[in-house]
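Q: My collaborator sent me two sequences in one message, no labels, and asked for predicted structures for both. Can we handle them in order? The first one she listed is below.
A: Yes, handling them in the order given. First sequence, followed by its C-alpha coordinates:
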Amino acid sequence: MAIDNFIPEIWAAGVTQSFIANQVVIPTLNTQFTGAVTRGNQVHVINATTPTIVDYAAAGRSITAEALSDTEVLLNINQEKAFSVNIDDVDAVQASSEFGPWVDSAGRALAEDAENYLVDLMVTGATNANTGSVVVDTAAEAKTAIRDIRKLMANAKVPAAGRYVVVNPDMSDLLIQGLDDVSVAGDDAELRNGVIGRLYGFTVIESPLLESAGTPAAVGYHQNMVGFVNQIQSLESLRNPTKFSDIVRGLSVYGAKILKADAVYKYVSA
Protein backbone atom coordinates (compact mmCIF):
# COMPACT_ATOMS: atom_id res chain seq x y z
CA MET A 1 0.00 0.00 0.00
CA ALA A 2 1.03 3.63 -0.40
CA ILE A 3 2.66 5.53 2.47
CA ASP A 4 0.87 4.48 5.65
CA ASN A 5 1.06 7.94 7.15
CA PHE A 6 -0.14 9.74 4.04
CA ILE A 7 -3.27 11.74 4.81
CA PRO A 8 -4.08 14.00 1.84
CA GLU A 9 -5.76 16.69 3.93
CA ILE A 10 -2.79 16.99 6.29
CA TRP A 11 -0.23 16.97 3.49
CA ALA A 12 -2.28 19.51 1.52
CA ALA A 13 -2.45 21.75 4.59
CA GLY A 14 1.32 21.42 5.05
CA VAL A 15 2.08 22.19 1.40
CA THR A 16 -0.30 25.18 1.52
CA GLN A 17 1.31 26.44 4.73
CA SER A 18 4.77 26.20 3.18
CA PHE A 19 3.47 27.81 -0.02
CA ILE A 20 2.22 30.81 1.96
CA ALA A 21 5.28 31.04 4.21
CA ASN A 22 7.61 31.32 1.20
CA GLN A 23 5.68 34.07 -0.56
CA VAL A 24 7.01 37.60 -0.88
CA VAL A 25 5.04 39.31 -3.64
CA ILE A 26 1.76 37.38 -3.47
CA PRO A 27 0.72 38.71 -0.01
CA THR A 28 0.90 42.26 -1.41
CA LEU A 29 -1.61 41.55 -4.19
CA ASN A 30 -5.39 41.38 -4.51
CA THR A 31 -6.25 37.80 -3.56
CA GLN A 32 -9.92 38.32 -2.71
CA PHE A 33 -11.02 36.20 -5.67
CA THR A 34 -9.38 33.04 -4.35
CA GLY A 35 -12.39 30.88 -3.62
CA ALA A 36 -13.97 28.50 -6.08
CA VAL A 37 -10.86 27.96 -8.17
CA THR A 38 -10.62 25.17 -10.72
CA ARG A 39 -8.67 24.56 -13.88
CA GLY A 40 -9.94 26.54 -16.85
CA ASN A 41 -12.01 28.92 -14.74
CA GLN A 42 -12.23 32.64 -15.32
CA VAL A 43 -12.74 35.25 -12.64
CA HIS A 44 -14.80 38.20 -13.82
CA VAL A 45 -13.52 41.40 -12.21
CA ILE A 46 -15.65 44.51 -12.54
CA ASN A 47 -13.96 47.92 -12.73
CA ALA A 48 -16.74 50.41 -12.01
CA THR A 49 -16.58 53.98 -13.29
CA THR A 50 -16.48 56.88 -10.83
CA PRO A 51 -19.78 58.78 -10.43
CA THR A 52 -19.86 62.51 -11.15
CA ILE A 53 -19.89 64.72 -8.04
CA VAL A 54 -22.28 67.69 -8.40
CA ASP A 55 -22.86 70.79 -6.31
CA TYR A 56 -26.21 69.86 -4.78
CA ALA A 57 -26.93 73.31 -3.37
CA ALA A 58 -26.06 75.11 -6.62
CA ALA A 59 -28.33 72.73 -8.51
CA GLY A 60 -31.30 73.83 -6.42
CA ARG A 61 -31.10 70.73 -4.27
CA SER A 62 -32.14 68.60 -7.18
CA ILE A 63 -30.10 65.83 -8.72
CA THR A 64 -30.49 63.57 -11.72
CA ALA A 65 -29.30 60.00 -11.51
CA GLU A 66 -26.68 59.10 -14.09
CA ALA A 67 -26.22 55.72 -15.69
CA LEU A 68 -23.04 54.09 -14.50
CA SER A 69 -20.93 51.95 -16.76
CA ASP A 70 -18.28 49.44 -15.99
CA THR A 71 -15.55 47.45 -17.67
CA GLU A 72 -14.91 43.79 -17.13
CA VAL A 73 -11.47 42.25 -16.76
CA LEU A 74 -11.10 38.51 -17.13
CA LEU A 75 -8.60 36.80 -14.85
CA ASN A 76 -7.83 33.46 -16.45
CA ILE A 77 -6.85 30.57 -14.19
CA ASN A 78 -4.58 29.08 -16.81
CA GLN A 79 -1.49 28.00 -14.90
CA GLU A 80 -1.37 24.33 -13.93
CA LYS A 81 1.79 23.35 -12.07
CA ALA A 82 2.50 19.90 -10.66
CA PHE A 83 5.13 18.06 -8.70
CA SER A 84 5.79 14.35 -8.36
CA VAL A 85 8.34 12.93 -5.93
CA ASN A 86 9.49 9.37 -5.42
CA ILE A 87 9.91 8.39 -1.76
CA ASP A 88 11.95 5.22 -1.35
CA ASP A 89 10.70 2.67 1.18
CA VAL A 90 14.00 2.85 3.06
CA ASP A 91 13.77 6.64 3.28
CA ALA A 92 10.17 6.39 4.44
CA VAL A 93 11.09 3.96 7.22
CA GLN A 94 14.02 6.07 8.34
CA ALA A 95 11.83 9.18 8.30
CA SER A 96 9.58 7.47 10.86
CA SER A 97 6.46 9.33 9.66
CA GLU A 98 8.24 12.69 9.60
CA PHE A 99 7.67 13.93 6.07
CA GLY A 100 8.02 17.62 6.89
CA PRO A 101 11.03 18.22 4.60
CA TRP A 102 9.19 16.82 1.57
CA VAL A 103 6.06 18.83 2.35
CA ASP A 104 8.05 22.02 2.91
CA SER A 105 10.11 21.66 -0.25
CA ALA A 106 6.98 21.10 -2.36
CA GLY A 107 5.32 24.25 -0.99
CA ARG A 108 8.51 26.26 -1.43
CA ALA A 109 8.91 25.14 -5.05
CA LEU A 110 5.28 26.00 -5.86
CA ALA A 111 5.66 29.42 -4.24
CA GLU A 112 8.79 30.23 -6.24
CA ASP A 113 7.11 29.14 -9.47
CA ALA A 114 4.03 31.30 -8.82
CA GLU A 115 6.06 34.33 -7.73
CA ASN A 116 8.29 34.04 -10.79
CA TYR A 117 5.21 34.01 -13.01
CA LEU A 118 3.77 37.03 -11.20
CA VAL A 119 6.92 39.11 -11.41
CA ASP A 120 7.29 38.36 -15.14
CA LEU A 121 3.64 39.27 -15.70
CA MET A 122 4.01 42.61 -13.91
CA VAL A 123 7.24 43.49 -15.74
CA THR A 124 5.66 42.65 -19.09
CA GLY A 125 2.46 44.57 -18.41
CA ALA A 126 3.91 47.57 -16.57
CA THR A 127 4.29 51.04 -18.05
CA ASN A 128 7.93 52.02 -18.51
CA ALA A 129 8.97 54.82 -16.15
CA ASN A 130 12.56 55.01 -17.43
CA THR A 131 11.73 56.69 -20.72
CA GLY A 132 15.06 58.49 -20.78
CA SER A 133 17.10 55.26 -20.65
CA VAL A 134 18.83 56.37 -17.44
CA VAL A 135 21.62 54.26 -16.00
CA VAL A 136 21.11 53.63 -12.28
CA ASP A 137 24.33 52.97 -10.39
CA THR A 138 24.19 55.24 -7.32
CA ALA A 139 21.93 55.51 -4.27
CA ALA A 140 20.71 58.92 -5.43
CA GLU A 141 19.76 57.58 -8.87
CA ALA A 142 18.00 54.60 -7.29
CA LYS A 143 15.89 56.92 -5.12
CA THR A 144 15.13 59.07 -8.17
CA ALA A 145 13.85 55.96 -9.95
CA ILE A 146 11.42 55.22 -7.11
CA ARG A 147 10.40 58.88 -7.02
CA ASP A 148 9.66 58.80 -10.76
CA ILE A 149 7.41 55.79 -10.27
CA ARG A 150 5.66 57.60 -7.41
CA LYS A 151 5.04 60.66 -9.60
CA LEU A 152 3.46 58.60 -12.37
CA MET A 153 1.22 56.80 -9.91
CA ALA A 154 0.21 60.07 -8.28
CA ASN A 155 -0.66 61.62 -11.64
CA ALA A 156 -2.72 58.54 -12.46
CA LYS A 157 -4.59 59.06 -9.16
CA VAL A 158 -3.55 55.68 -7.81
CA PRO A 159 -4.54 55.62 -4.10
CA ALA A 160 -1.65 56.47 -1.79
CA ALA A 161 -2.49 53.74 0.69
CA GLY A 162 -1.52 50.28 -0.47
CA ARG A 163 1.38 51.15 -2.75
CA TYR A 164 4.25 48.67 -3.07
CA VAL A 165 7.46 48.54 -5.01
CA VAL A 166 9.33 45.30 -5.57
CA VAL A 167 13.04 45.68 -6.28
CA ASN A 168 15.73 43.24 -7.28
CA PRO A 169 18.89 42.81 -5.17
CA ASP A 170 20.85 45.21 -7.39
CA MET A 171 18.34 48.00 -6.74
CA SER A 172 17.88 47.20 -3.05
CA ASP A 173 21.63 47.32 -2.51
CA LEU A 174 21.57 50.95 -3.65
CA LEU A 175 18.39 51.85 -1.75
CA ILE A 176 18.97 50.14 1.56
CA GLN A 177 20.79 53.00 3.28
CA GLY A 178 17.95 55.46 2.72
CA LEU A 179 14.99 53.39 3.86
CA ASP A 180 12.98 53.87 7.02
CA ASP A 181 13.18 51.15 9.64
CA VAL A 182 11.39 47.99 8.58
CA SER A 183 9.22 48.13 11.71
CA VAL A 184 7.07 50.82 10.10
CA ALA A 185 6.53 48.82 6.92
CA GLY A 186 3.41 46.96 8.02
CA ASP A 187 2.13 44.23 10.28
CA ASP A 188 1.55 41.25 7.97
CA ALA A 189 3.81 38.44 9.09
CA GLU A 190 3.90 37.07 5.54
CA LEU A 191 5.65 40.21 4.33
CA ARG A 192 8.46 40.22 6.85
CA ASN A 193 10.78 38.05 4.82
CA GLY A 194 10.70 40.40 1.86
CA VAL A 195 10.11 43.88 3.30
CA ILE A 196 13.20 46.04 3.53
CA GLY A 197 11.54 49.32 4.48
CA ARG A 198 9.50 52.33 3.41
CA LEU A 199 10.33 55.00 0.85
CA TYR A 200 8.23 57.79 -0.71
CA GLY A 201 4.98 56.17 0.44
CA PHE A 202 5.89 52.70 -0.84
CA THR A 203 6.42 49.55 1.14
CA VAL A 204 9.63 48.26 -0.43
CA ILE A 205 10.06 44.53 -0.87
CA GLU A 206 12.96 42.62 -2.36
CA SER A 207 12.70 39.67 -4.71
CA PRO A 208 15.57 37.97 -6.54
CA LEU A 209 12.99 36.77 -9.07
CA LEU A 210 12.89 40.27 -10.55
CA GLU A 211 15.66 39.65 -13.05
CA SER A 212 17.17 42.27 -15.32
CA ALA A 213 20.55 40.95 -16.44
CA GLY A 214 22.33 42.18 -13.33
CA THR A 215 21.04 45.77 -13.49
CA PRO A 216 18.90 47.60 -10.90
CA ALA A 217 15.16 47.21 -11.48
CA ALA A 218 11.92 48.08 -9.70
CA VAL A 219 8.19 47.59 -10.26
CA GLY A 220 5.71 49.82 -8.44
CA TYR A 221 2.06 48.83 -8.09
CA HIS A 222 -1.06 49.16 -5.99
CA GLN A 223 -2.15 46.12 -3.99
CA ASN A 224 -5.69 46.12 -5.38
CA MET A 225 -4.68 46.50 -9.01
CA VAL A 226 -2.96 43.14 -9.53
CA GLY A 227 -5.12 40.08 -8.95
CA PHE A 228 -3.97 36.58 -8.05
CA VAL A 229 -5.91 33.38 -7.37
CA ASN A 230 -4.63 29.92 -6.59
CA GLN A 231 -5.50 26.59 -5.05
CA ILE A 232 -3.76 23.30 -4.32
CA GLN A 233 -6.08 21.33 -6.58
CA SER A 234 -5.01 17.74 -5.96
CA LEU A 235 -2.64 15.80 -3.74
CA GLU A 236 -2.32 12.03 -3.78
CA SER A 237 -0.08 9.08 -3.03
CA LEU A 238 0.27 5.93 -5.10
CA ARG A 239 2.54 2.93 -5.21
CA ASN A 240 5.37 3.03 -7.75
CA PRO A 241 4.82 -0.06 -9.95
CA THR A 242 8.51 -0.46 -10.83
CA LYS A 243 10.27 0.36 -7.56
CA PHE A 244 9.99 -0.24 -3.82
CA SER A 245 8.74 3.28 -3.27
CA ASP A 246 5.76 5.57 -3.19
CA ILE A 247 4.96 8.46 -5.47
CA VAL A 248 3.50 11.59 -3.96
CA ARG A 249 2.25 14.12 -6.45
CA GLY A 250 0.28 17.32 -6.35
CA LEU A 251 -1.33 19.86 -8.66
CA SER A 252 -1.62 23.60 -8.07
CA VAL A 253 -3.65 25.89 -10.31
CA TYR A 254 -3.42 29.65 -10.37
CA GLY A 255 -3.83 32.78 -12.45
CA ALA A 256 -2.93 36.45 -12.28
CA LYS A 257 -3.86 39.65 -14.04
CA ILE A 258 -3.05 43.36 -13.98
CA LEU A 259 -6.50 44.75 -13.25
CA LYS A 260 -5.66 48.39 -13.97
CA ALA A 261 -2.81 49.18 -16.34
CA ASP A 262 -2.08 52.69 -15.06
CA ALA A 263 -1.39 51.37 -11.55
CA VAL A 264 1.74 49.36 -12.44
CA TYR A 265 5.06 50.95 -13.46
CA LYS A 266 8.57 49.59 -13.96
CA TYR A 267 11.97 51.23 -13.85
CA VAL A 268 14.87 49.21 -15.24
CA SER A 269 18.34 50.69 -15.46
CA ALA A 270 19.55 51.17 -19.02
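Q: And the one she listed second?
A: Here it is, processed independently of the first:
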Amino acid sequence: MFGFVTADLSLLSDEQRRRYKSFYCGLCLSLKQRHGSLARFTLTYDMTFLVMFLTSLYEPYLMRGETPCPAHPLSTRQFFQSDVTDYAADMNIALAYLNCLDDWQDELNAAALAGAKALKSSYERVCRDYPRQCGVIKECMARLKKIEDERIAAPDAAATAFGDLMAELFVMREDIWADTLRRFGRALGQFVYVMDACIDLKGDKRAYKYNPFVYLYGRLDEQQRFRDILQTLLADCIESFERLPMIQDADIIKNILCSGVWIKFNRHYDTGSK
Protein backbone atom coordinates (compact mmCIF):
# COMPACT_ATOMS: atom_id res chain seq x y z
CA MET A 1 0.00 0.00 0.00
CA PHE A 2 2.89 2.30 -0.69
CA GLY A 3 3.95 4.21 -3.76
CA PHE A 4 0.80 6.35 -4.04
CA VAL A 5 1.82 9.51 -2.18
CA THR A 6 4.23 10.94 -4.72
CA ALA A 7 4.65 14.20 -6.61
CA ASP A 8 3.44 14.82 -10.14
CA LEU A 9 6.85 15.86 -11.44
CA SER A 10 5.41 17.11 -14.74
CA LEU A 11 3.70 19.96 -12.85
CA LEU A 12 6.69 21.00 -10.73
CA SER A 13 9.25 23.65 -11.61
CA ASP A 14 12.93 22.71 -11.79
CA GLU A 15 13.53 24.28 -8.37
CA GLN A 16 10.60 22.40 -6.84
CA ARG A 17 11.90 19.14 -8.27
CA ARG A 18 15.33 19.82 -6.76
CA ARG A 19 13.84 20.47 -3.33
CA TYR A 20 11.67 17.37 -3.53
CA LYS A 21 14.67 15.22 -4.49
CA SER A 22 16.75 16.81 -1.72
CA PHE A 23 14.27 15.64 0.92
CA TYR A 24 14.24 12.18 -0.67
CA CYS A 25 18.04 11.99 -0.63
CA GLY A 26 18.14 13.28 2.95
CA LEU A 27 15.79 10.49 4.03
CA CYS A 28 17.93 7.94 2.21
CA LEU A 29 21.04 9.24 3.99
CA SER A 30 19.30 9.16 7.39
CA LEU A 31 18.31 5.54 6.82
CA LYS A 32 21.95 4.66 6.15
CA GLN A 33 23.31 6.66 9.07
CA ARG A 34 20.79 5.37 11.60
CA HIS A 35 20.16 1.82 10.40
CA GLY A 36 22.88 0.79 7.95
CA SER A 37 23.22 0.70 4.19
CA LEU A 38 20.68 -2.10 3.69
CA ALA A 39 18.00 0.12 5.20
CA ARG A 40 18.17 2.26 2.08
CA PHE A 41 16.29 -0.45 0.21
CA THR A 42 13.20 0.38 2.28
CA LEU A 43 13.15 4.00 1.05
CA THR A 44 9.82 5.27 -0.32
CA TYR A 45 8.49 8.54 -1.67
CA ASP A 46 5.53 8.14 0.68
CA MET A 47 7.83 8.70 3.66
CA THR A 48 9.47 11.58 1.80
CA PHE A 49 6.03 13.19 1.87
CA LEU A 50 5.94 12.73 5.65
CA VAL A 51 9.30 14.53 5.88
CA MET A 52 8.16 17.44 3.72
CA PHE A 53 4.82 17.74 5.49
CA LEU A 54 6.21 17.86 9.03
CA THR A 55 9.13 20.04 7.95
CA SER A 56 6.71 22.56 6.48
CA LEU A 57 4.71 22.59 9.71
CA TYR A 58 7.52 22.69 12.28
CA GLU A 59 10.20 24.49 10.25
CA PRO A 60 13.20 22.73 11.88
CA TYR A 61 16.78 23.69 11.11
CA LEU A 62 17.73 22.03 7.81
CA MET A 63 21.24 20.72 7.38
CA ARG A 64 22.11 20.97 3.69
CA GLY A 65 24.91 19.24 1.85
CA GLU A 66 25.93 16.90 -0.92
CA THR A 67 26.49 13.18 -0.64
CA PRO A 68 27.64 10.34 -2.90
CA CYS A 69 24.74 8.29 -4.21
CA PRO A 70 25.03 4.51 -4.73
CA ALA A 71 22.38 4.73 -7.45
CA HIS A 72 24.34 7.47 -9.26
CA PRO A 73 28.02 6.69 -8.53
CA LEU A 74 29.42 9.30 -10.94
CA SER A 75 27.80 12.26 -9.21
CA THR A 76 26.75 13.61 -5.83
CA ARG A 77 23.24 14.50 -4.70
CA GLN A 78 22.02 17.47 -2.67
CA PHE A 79 20.24 16.54 0.56
CA PHE A 80 18.23 18.17 3.34
CA GLN A 81 18.21 16.66 6.84
CA SER A 82 16.67 17.53 10.21
CA ASP A 83 15.20 15.84 13.26
CA VAL A 84 12.08 15.28 11.14
CA THR A 85 14.14 13.31 8.62
CA ASP A 86 15.49 11.09 11.38
CA TYR A 87 11.97 10.53 12.72
CA ALA A 88 10.68 9.52 9.28
CA ALA A 89 13.64 7.16 8.81
CA ASP A 90 12.75 5.42 12.07
CA MET A 91 9.07 5.15 11.14
CA ASN A 92 10.11 3.80 7.75
CA ILE A 93 12.02 1.00 9.49
CA ALA A 94 9.05 0.12 11.70
CA LEU A 95 6.73 -0.15 8.71
CA ALA A 96 9.24 -2.09 6.61
CA TYR A 97 9.96 -4.62 9.36
CA LEU A 98 6.30 -5.34 10.11
CA ASN A 99 5.50 -5.49 6.40
CA CYS A 100 8.26 -8.07 5.89
CA LEU A 101 6.86 -10.14 8.77
CA ASP A 102 3.38 -9.93 7.29
CA ASP A 103 4.61 -11.07 3.87
CA TRP A 104 6.47 -13.99 5.44
CA GLN A 105 3.45 -15.10 7.47
CA ASP A 106 1.02 -14.76 4.55
CA GLU A 107 3.13 -16.08 1.67
CA LEU A 108 6.15 -17.81 3.28
CA ASN A 109 8.25 -15.39 1.24
CA ALA A 110 11.91 -16.20 2.01
CA ALA A 111 13.08 -12.76 0.92
CA ALA A 112 10.62 -11.16 3.33
CA LEU A 113 11.92 -13.33 6.18
CA ALA A 114 15.49 -12.31 5.36
CA GLY A 115 14.41 -8.67 5.31
CA ALA A 116 12.72 -8.98 8.71
CA LYS A 117 15.83 -10.56 10.22
CA ALA A 118 18.03 -7.80 8.78
CA LEU A 119 15.77 -5.08 10.20
CA LYS A 120 14.94 -6.65 13.56
CA SER A 121 17.58 -4.93 15.71
CA SER A 122 16.80 -1.54 14.16
CA TYR A 123 13.09 -2.12 14.68
CA GLU A 124 13.60 -2.97 18.35
CA ARG A 125 15.59 0.24 18.83
CA VAL A 126 12.87 2.29 17.11
CA CYS A 127 10.27 0.68 19.42
CA ARG A 128 12.25 1.79 22.45
CA ASP A 129 12.49 5.35 21.11
CA TYR A 130 8.88 5.60 19.86
CA PRO A 131 6.71 3.18 21.87
CA ARG A 132 3.47 5.07 21.13
CA GLN A 133 3.84 5.03 17.37
CA CYS A 134 5.20 1.49 17.17
CA GLY A 135 2.48 0.18 19.44
CA VAL A 136 -0.25 1.69 17.27
CA ILE A 137 1.40 0.51 14.03
CA LYS A 138 1.62 -3.06 15.34
CA GLU A 139 -1.96 -3.02 16.64
CA CYS A 140 -3.34 -1.64 13.38
CA MET A 141 -1.48 -4.19 11.27
CA ALA A 142 -2.88 -6.94 13.49
CA ARG A 143 -6.39 -5.53 12.91
CA LEU A 144 -5.78 -5.51 9.16
CA LYS A 145 -4.56 -9.09 9.20
CA LYS A 146 -7.64 -10.22 11.14
CA ILE A 147 -9.94 -8.43 8.68
CA GLU A 148 -8.13 -10.00 5.73
CA ASP A 149 -8.04 -13.49 7.28
CA GLU A 150 -11.77 -13.33 8.00
CA ARG A 151 -12.38 -11.83 4.54
CA ILE A 152 -14.66 -9.12 5.92
CA ALA A 153 -16.41 -7.46 2.97
CA ALA A 154 -16.56 -4.03 4.58
CA PRO A 155 -14.21 -1.47 3.03
CA ASP A 156 -14.66 0.88 5.99
CA ALA A 157 -13.19 -1.58 8.50
CA ALA A 158 -9.96 -2.18 6.62
CA ALA A 159 -9.57 1.44 5.51
CA THR A 160 -10.09 2.66 9.07
CA ALA A 161 -7.41 0.31 10.40
CA PHE A 162 -4.87 1.59 7.89
CA GLY A 163 -6.06 5.15 8.49
CA ASP A 164 -5.43 4.79 12.23
CA LEU A 165 -1.93 3.55 11.45
CA MET A 166 -1.17 6.56 9.25
CA ALA A 167 -2.73 8.93 11.76
CA GLU A 168 -0.13 8.03 14.36
CA LEU A 169 2.78 8.37 11.94
CA PHE A 170 1.99 12.03 11.40
CA VAL A 171 2.07 12.80 15.13
CA MET A 172 5.77 13.21 15.72
CA ARG A 173 5.05 14.83 19.08
CA GLU A 174 1.95 15.47 21.17
CA ASP A 175 1.33 19.21 20.81
CA ILE A 176 -1.34 21.68 19.69
CA TRP A 177 -1.26 20.27 16.16
CA ALA A 178 -1.60 16.60 17.13
CA ASP A 179 -5.38 16.33 16.68
CA THR A 180 -5.32 17.95 13.23
CA LEU A 181 -2.35 15.85 12.17
CA ARG A 182 -4.17 12.69 13.23
CA ARG A 183 -7.24 13.71 11.22
CA PHE A 184 -5.05 14.40 8.21
CA GLY A 185 -3.10 11.15 8.50
CA ARG A 186 -6.25 9.10 9.07
CA ALA A 187 -7.96 10.50 5.97
CA LEU A 188 -4.82 10.04 3.88
CA GLY A 189 -4.42 6.46 5.11
CA GLN A 190 -8.03 5.63 4.27
CA PHE A 191 -7.54 7.15 0.82
CA VAL A 192 -4.38 5.11 0.20
CA TYR A 193 -5.99 1.85 1.33
CA VAL A 194 -9.04 2.35 -0.86
CA MET A 195 -6.89 3.42 -3.81
CA ASP A 196 -4.78 0.29 -3.49
CA ALA A 197 -7.90 -1.90 -3.27
CA CYS A 198 -9.43 -0.26 -6.35
CA ILE A 199 -6.33 -0.76 -8.47
CA ASP A 200 -5.71 -4.33 -7.29
CA LEU A 201 -9.34 -5.45 -7.48
CA LYS A 202 -9.29 -7.51 -10.67
CA GLY A 203 -5.93 -9.11 -9.91
CA ASP A 204 -6.97 -9.93 -6.35
CA LYS A 205 -10.19 -11.53 -7.59
CA ARG A 206 -8.31 -13.73 -10.05
CA ALA A 207 -5.79 -14.75 -7.37
CA TYR A 208 -8.51 -15.27 -4.69
CA LYS A 209 -6.84 -12.64 -2.51
CA TYR A 210 -8.74 -10.52 -0.03
CA ASN A 211 -10.18 -7.28 -1.38
CA PRO A 212 -13.05 -5.46 0.37
CA PHE A 213 -14.46 -4.26 -2.96
CA VAL A 214 -14.86 -7.70 -4.49
CA TYR A 215 -18.68 -7.43 -4.46
CA LEU A 216 -18.51 -4.32 -6.64
CA TYR A 217 -16.45 -6.13 -9.25
CA GLY A 218 -17.79 -5.95 -12.78
CA ARG A 219 -20.07 -2.93 -12.37
CA LEU A 220 -20.17 -0.79 -15.50
CA ASP A 221 -19.71 2.34 -13.41
CA GLU A 222 -16.91 0.83 -11.33
CA GLN A 223 -14.36 3.52 -12.16
CA GLN A 224 -16.69 6.41 -11.32
CA ARG A 225 -17.89 4.76 -8.11
CA PHE A 226 -14.31 4.38 -6.94
CA ARG A 227 -13.39 7.90 -7.98
CA ASP A 228 -16.34 9.32 -6.02
CA ILE A 229 -15.29 7.43 -2.87
CA LEU A 230 -11.69 8.53 -3.24
CA GLN A 231 -12.59 12.17 -3.85
CA THR A 232 -14.64 12.22 -0.64
CA LEU A 233 -11.76 10.79 1.39
CA LEU A 234 -9.27 13.18 -0.19
CA ALA A 235 -11.51 16.17 0.53
CA ASP A 236 -11.35 15.31 4.25
CA CYS A 237 -7.59 15.07 3.97
CA ILE A 238 -7.20 18.44 2.25
CA GLU A 239 -9.55 20.11 4.73
CA SER A 240 -7.25 19.10 7.59
CA PHE A 241 -4.18 20.19 5.63
CA GLU A 242 -5.65 23.65 5.13
CA ARG A 243 -6.10 24.05 8.90
CA LEU A 244 -2.34 23.84 9.42
CA PRO A 245 -0.08 26.94 9.17
CA MET A 246 2.15 25.63 6.38
CA ILE A 247 3.91 27.92 3.91
CA GLN A 248 7.31 26.46 2.96
CA ASP A 249 6.87 23.82 0.24
CA ALA A 250 3.08 24.06 0.53
CA ASP A 251 2.93 24.21 -3.26
CA ILE A 252 4.72 20.85 -3.56
CA ILE A 253 2.48 19.33 -0.90
CA LYS A 254 -0.60 20.56 -2.79
CA ASN A 255 0.83 19.06 -5.98
CA ILE A 256 1.07 15.69 -4.25
CA LEU A 257 -2.40 15.83 -2.69
CA CYS A 258 -4.22 17.19 -5.73
CA SER A 259 -2.39 15.48 -8.58
CA GLY A 260 0.35 13.06 -7.55
CA VAL A 261 -1.89 10.73 -5.53
CA TRP A 262 -4.04 10.16 -8.63
CA ILE A 263 -1.24 9.11 -10.99
CA LYS A 264 -1.54 5.35 -10.48
CA PHE A 265 -5.34 5.40 -10.52
CA ASN A 266 -5.51 7.38 -13.76
CA ARG A 267 -2.83 5.26 -15.39
CA HIS A 268 -4.59 2.06 -14.35
CA TYR A 269 -7.99 3.01 -15.74
CA ASP A 270 -6.81 5.05 -18.73
CA THR A 271 -4.81 2.08 -20.02
CA GLY A 272 -7.55 -0.41 -19.18
CA SER A 273 -5.25 -2.34 -16.88
CA LYS A 274 -6.41 -5.81 -15.97
